[in-house]
Amino acid sequence: MFVLANIFILGSGGFGTALAVMAHKYGQQVTLWSAFQEEIDEIRFHGENKKKLPGVAVDLSIDLTSDITGVKEADIAIIAVPSFAIRSVARQLADVNSPQTIVVNVGKGLEADTLKRFSEVIAEELPDGRKIVRFEPVSAWETPGAMAALCDAFQTAAQDAELDPLLLIPIFILDFLCIHPFNDGNGRMSRLLTTLLLYRSGYVVGRYVSLEAKIERNKNVYYDVLHIASTKWHEGENDPVPFIKYILGTILSAYRDFEDRVQLVDEKLPAVDLVRRAVQKKVGKFTKSEIMELCPSIKKASVENSLKKLVENGEITRHSSGKNTFYTRNN
Hints:
about 325 residues; alpha/beta
């Protein structure tokens, strides 16, 4: 696994810890910082953040520290602290940060004393940096009203039936993501809402094929499209068409996968032949879970045994091990 970047995460709360775990999973060199040495000692001792993110293992190769000076060596510094700590952490960072280090804020909210956004506080404390705003969500105090207005507008449009649900739903989801009502989990919630609203409109493919899994496999494209479609959203001048096309493409792909599964289930074949046919439909690398999705009529053990036979026969090649295992076809 290649190290792509040296990432220093400031804040060992649930969100900061989760970011550290995920960044490490994808091959980054990660340091997780806390202002409290006892918090670092507890995570190191238990191998997890029992107070803030219980049950999620923190790999031993993730560097845990209460020494903020280590940020000097980082390519990216991610600030993931609550509102009461944002200014003090930004001020500490300003004293030791390298001009070459990219500073990323992942928090949302307002500083209690000044009612300033996190980005404004950071800009004040790190005034020499070049500020790049990927997207500025609706402020915390405006969020309840914005969500109420969005839901009312969606209900009205759905009742008027002038716009097809397949167009209306992506527009609703885009606005939901731009409002960004939660500190964390907005993406997951948006995908659950997509599936629910499709159910209500008679499109039930999400029961059989995970739309969330499809988006996860193409998340780079997803985020690029979201960025394009949300540009000038606050001014009411954004273009939702790229996001609509992306969501429609994902739904269409899910229906195609469902059709493939039905064809495989209809044929009474041995498990290895069902797996072989599923493999033949894959292009590039694929995982065991993807094959299991295409072969819902056979058990996990049968899929595993069939993949093993195909490897032994030289039809496919297994790469890596454990959770990182994937396969490729040899023809």
